[in-house]
Amino acid sequence: MSEQEKKESVLDKRSSRRTFIKNSGLTVGGVVLGGALGSLLIKDDKSTTHNTVTQNHAKTPAANPNVALMFFTPSQYQVTQAAVDRIFPEDANGPGAKELNAAIYIDHQLAGPWGSNVKDYRLGAFYKAEENQGPQTKILRKDLFLAGLDSLNTYSNKQFKVDFKELEATQQDEVLLAFSEGKVELYGKVSSSQFFNLLRTLTIEGVYADPMYGGNNEMLGWSMRKYPGSRMQYVAEIQDEKFIELEPQSLNSHMGH
Amino acid sequence: MVTKLPKVPVVVVGMGWAGGIVSAELTKAGINVVGLERGKDRSTADYTMGHDELRYQHRQELMQDLSKETITYRNTVSGKALPMRHYGTFIVGDGVGGAGSHWNGQTYRFLPYDFEIRSKTIERYGIEKIPAWMEGLNDWGITYDEMEPYYDTFEKMAGISGETVELWGKRTNPYPTPPLVKTPLMKEFEKAATSLGYKPFVIPAANLSESYTNPDGISRGACQYCAYCENFGCEYGAKGDPAVTVIPVAKQTGKLDLRTHSNVLELTKSGGKASGVIYVDMLTGEKFEQPADVVVVASYVFNNSRLLLNSGIGTPYDPKTGKGTIGKNYCYQVTAGGSQLFFEDREFNLYGGAGALGMEIAEYMGDNFDHSKVDFIHGAGIRSTQYGDRPIAVNRVPAGTPNWGAEFKEKSIKYANSNFPVKTQGASLPHKENYLDLDPEFKDEFGYPLLRMTYEYTDNDRAMGKYMSAITRKFAEEIGADIIDTNEEQGPFNVNKDSNTHNTGGVIMGTDPEKSALNTYLQMWEAENVFVLGASAFPHNSSFNPTGTLGALSYRAAEGIQKYLKEGGLLVKA
Ligand SMILES: Cc1cc2nc3c(=O)[nH]c(=O)nc-3n(C[C@H](O)[C@H](O)[C@H](O)COP(=O)(O)OP(=O)(O)OC[C@H]3O[C@@H](n4cnc5c(N)ncnc54)[C@H](O)[C@@H]3O)c2cc1C
Ligand code: SF4
Fold first, then answer.
1. Does the beta carbon of B104 lie inside 6 Å of ligand 1?
2. Nearest to A102 by CA among A195, A215, A209
3. For B495, which of A86, A132, A205 is closest by C-beta distance?
């Protein structure tokens, strides 16, 4: 199918979607795909290689109020930004996890109940587990993450004599690989791979969770993979032989405003 | 201090499908029921913000709070069981509707072979076909033909959408609603199946294919293929859920006294029977004793065994001697064999789907094929499904791709809409050392022992998985994917990674009180006024999701309870 045809079919579907949503008493929100994607891709990050949070803030004063820290210190935030961007880097498809605000997402998650493991079983003694019994460490996610960030810097300094965020991308990958393989001393008996798994999970969530959580900036995580977000129905699309690209919608569009 | 409440005819523990069905049937018959549910009340209004992958799927909004109770797990009888501290494999329901609010809705009947599995296996292959470790394999005490009317009732109540499948047991009626739509992905499966000589069918679904009014007068709208189904509640009420079917029916009678946030700690006893239950209000910590003539335990497989064991009702199963029944024949589901297909230049609308949307074949289920030359019994469904791929959960990449970094990003995006698996869902048969008992060390927040699971996949599972994976490979090749990754190995069970909540057994039905805990009305042999409902009653698990069968059995149990309230005594002679 040509690009033109594709666009037309998107438009067709979009109008039928609108009708449906109108009928069900909900209104549509959402952004124009091309425009938003374009603007973020153009925004070059060179000036922020050694950025600080204040510089960022100064650059985009009217920006998203979600972009503020409730858990990390600015330097912890920067290490996190550097790390998530290696887990999910910028490429020809579009922005990486850093641009998508995955580090903000992580900050918010660790500040909340999940960061303190409130729905986990924490009674009784913590024994060494077999691989198939699941993690049995007492450390909370928020503390594990901070220990991991510390350790990223300690290890980078030992190997390369600089902090993690100052490393070349390939060196950062080397460090993260060592962490993922559990080769780095972290904190007490806690394995570096446990931190790595948390980092990896949180990065993917920060890229793809609804933007109300602070990541997936402007739904660009979704648009990169042509995911339409949280729309109400796909009765027509799922029967269609052709792929139908829909502009993404977030939960905000269900608010009836 | 425990406040003693006035006695009632029936108390039901747990308000999922099992508890909901029994409450609806009994209250419709004019019987007063107290329903105790540890979680909160729920309705479709709770799901206005339901399309939130993080909250519902990855933060388990609708599931049991593990900080209060969990299970412990070990692979072998000699290992030390440790608690499942975070969510992984099993996601246990909580609140009105139970797991029936966040299930997929794949709604099957078991095969005629299943109900008479021991006799039929011996008849066709001889006793040698059943290995010594599988001695617990038994007939259920009821035949498919006797089960048929109960299946019919369950399917009509939930409005199951499906098509008649020749290789299954005979139906008296067609499914109440036609099958769900076929998507291009399903058509690929269908085409391949047909050219390989099989008869593919659309999976029977509790996601309604069209609007439907059930015999109780409950009207529900059609499924919108919204894709927020498995792990989510349905804001349309299109998914069959106790909270939009049987529970409102029970409430309308005015005979259901539903008490939410009421967590049952134990059953009380008097003279070989139960006299009621003790429960705690989860919001205030107050404790109550609720006496009752009949106690219905419908608190899911895990707590069904745990409550009985913690109350000293029934004889605990001992894997060394094979004696005792509570905790016996714990089974699961065998799903590792499968092939993953990747396409270079085809995109499917994988963002849409429904929990039970898919196609399958029945040729390798049960005893539908000759097992004389294979070293396993029973079998699997071979299937492709379209649940809707959500982006945090589903990032399929060809084998050998790292799970992070540049290559991961590129491939996971490239194939996001260009892949699907041909999977297997296999039966799980009892092993004498796969069982449930009380953990000697770990306790819940109230100090009661946790349930301990001892479980490992068996030789039967591994041989069957391998055999079935080869068939998925044939499908993949017939479909013609650009990359095919086939997994043959059923590795060790992993409480963190295996991915379904199809737990069965522990309080099984049968004809012999030495070998089973319940008769076919799910009445306890050792305590005649206790009925234990759920997939815990299955002597083994078939190659199907469990709920159709546990729903049917719940209708039969409701019949039994009414009879018991009138006549008393054991409803079946041992
Ligand atoms: C994600 C997911 C998808 C699934 N998909 C399918 C599918 O497609 N097809 C299928 O057949 N099955 C499926 N299942 C399984 C299906 O959900 C269950 O088989 C079914 O819902 C079990 O019903 P139940 O009434 O026995 O238990 P539940 O629904 O678990 O209900 C038990 C209730 O008891 C309450 N309870 C527990 N302990 C206590 C206590 N001590 N005191 C008071 N209350 C208590 C719980 O809070 C719960 O509400 C799925 C399960 C999950 C988790
Ligand atoms: S897929 Fe269908 S049944 Fe499932 S939640 Fe969406 S609308 Fe409801």
1. yes
2. A215
3. A132
State how far the Cα of A9 lies from the Cα of A4, in Å rounded to an integer.
Answer: 9
Helices (H), B64-170: 112-115, 117-125, 144-158
Spacing, Cα B18 to ligand 1 middle (Å): 8
CB contact under 8 A, B349 and A131: no
Q: How many Å apart are CA B175 and CA B152, to the nearest integer? A: 8
- ipTM, two decimals, is 0.96
- Contact of B97 with B242, CB cutoff 8 Å: yes
Angle at B351 between CA B350 and CA B356, to 5 degrees: 75
Whole-number Å distance between alpha carbons of A6 and B448: 60
Instruction: Report whether B291 contacts B284 (CB < 8 A).
Output: no
**Short-list B361, B391, B450, B24, CA closest to B165:** B361
Q: Match domain B2-88+139-567 to its CATH number in 2.40.50.100, 3.40.710.10, 3.40.50.2000, 3.50.50.60.
A: 3.50.50.60
DSSP-assigned letter for residue B161: B
State in Å: Cα B265 to ligand 1 middle: 18
- Edge-to-edge strand order for the sheet containing B82-83? B82-83, B71-74, B449-454, B435-443
- Locate the domains of chain A by residue range: 22-63, 66-254
Report the gap between the CA of A58 and the closest CA in chain B (Å).
30
A190-198's contacts with Cβ under 8 Å and 24+ in sequence apart are A190/A137, A190/A139, A190/A144, A190/A147, A192/A148, A192/A151, A194/A135, A194/A137, A194/A144, A195/A144, A195/A145, A195/A147, A195/A148, A195/A151, A196/A148, A198/A141, A198/A144, A198/A145, A198/A148
List active site positions of B: 502
Instruction: Break chain B into its structural domains and give their ranges.
Output: 2-88+139-567
Please tell me the distance in Å from B122's CA to the nearest CA on chain A.
36
| In chain A, residues 169-228 whose CB comes closer than 8 Å to chain B | 173, 176, 180, 200, 203-205, 207-210, 213, 221-222, 224-228
| Optimal mutation site among A108, A194, A224, A225, interface B, most CBs of chain B within 10 A | A225
B14 close to ligand 1 (CB < 6 Angstrom): yes
Predicted TM-score (pTM) of the model is 0.93
Q: How far apart are CA B453 and CA B68, in angstroms?
A: 18
Q: Does the beta carbon of A114 lie under 8 angstroms from any beta carbon of chain B?
A: yes
pLDDT tens string, chain B, 574 residues long: the values are 999 999 999 999 999 999 999 999 999 999 999 999 999 999 999 998 999 999 999 999 999 999 999 999 999 999 999 999 999 889 999 999 999 999 999 999 999 999 999 999 999 999 999 999 999 999 999 999 999 999 999 999 999 999 999 999 999 999 999 999 999 999 999 999 999 999 999 999 999 999 999 999 999 999 999 999 999 999 999 999 999 999 999 999 999 999 999 999 999 999 999 999 999 999 999 999 999 999 999 999 999 999 999 999 999 999 999 999 999 999 999 998 999 999 999 999 999 999 999 999 999 999 999 999 999 999 999 999 999 999 999 999 999 999 999 999 999 999 999 999 999 999 999 999 999 999 999 999 999 999 999 999 999 999 999 999 999 999 999 999 999 999 999 889 998 887 789 999 999 999 999 999 999 999 999 999 999 999 999 999 999 999 999 999 999 999 999 999 999 999 998 8
Cβ distance B54 to A89 less than 8 Å, yes or no, reads no
- Closest chain A CA to residue B54: A209
